[in-house]
Design brief:
ten-stranded mixed sheet; alpha/beta; 313 residues; 14 strands; four-stranded mixed sheet; 37% helix
Amino acid sequence: MPDIATVTINPAVDVSTSVERIVPVAKLRGTSQRRDPGGGGINVARVIKRLGGRGVRAIYPVGGATGDLLRRLLDAESVDSQTFQIAGETREDFFVHEQSTALQYRFILPGPTLVDREWSEFLQLIASLDPFPRFVVASGSLPGGVPDDFYARMAAITKRRGSQIILDTSGAALAAAVAEGVDLIKPNLREMRELTGTEPRDAGEWVAAARRIVEMRQASIVALTMGHLGAALVTRDRTWRAKSLPIIPQSAVGAGDSFLGALVLRLASGTDLGAAFRYAMAAGAAALLNPGTELCRTADVERLAEQVVIEET
């Protein structure tokens, strides 16, 4: 079993295109067409593989023709997969770039509803991994039928096996997981607002909110991405801050997944937290340079890493 397993309970095939202008009723003819494997954990695995990581496996359910396509797309990127068959059809998401305004429209579909037997057997699959991975990255939304404490149950399994659980989700699923206790979470500002029920006024107050989560032992590390305010990495004893890089974004899709994939890759390789944070900042910024759902490119990450300024407080 690889060192890193990513778990995506609600994967997707991401379809992206561009049109000159979005208007109602009329047929809007796309000028391009692209399909990529998608879903939080799958994107994290793609980034780790792309950046040179060898010990990563993506674990996810598949259903119907779209599920078959998802697996083929990951095979084309040489990402190791372990799939679980479900009755419902794997979802598609749809992204449209409007050329006249440079705006991006993101249509996120709900995906299949999993019955109790499916999600419980999927948890059993995770629990039965042997050897068990050192890092389990659980990322993305929960599909219909899956209980809010699904990731909390996964965290309990991972802790019993002596491994680290890294989580990137939102809402009730995130709240339940941090109540169980996890090793690392990667919220954005909206997710942090929902989790804490607060409305910080500036970056300093956002970082203080992240520190309280660590002090309450809900997470050992909080990697907080703050958009134009940059990002912070907070532990019990140390805090690193980084400003956002001056980039004109082509697409916002996958920036958070690229950040997390690069961070996990470097943590798994034994890189110190500050250096891992710098690399993650570069990967998140690099994803903004590419259209559609392409994620970050290695050359861009290496170049941008030299421009990231980290301050420790």
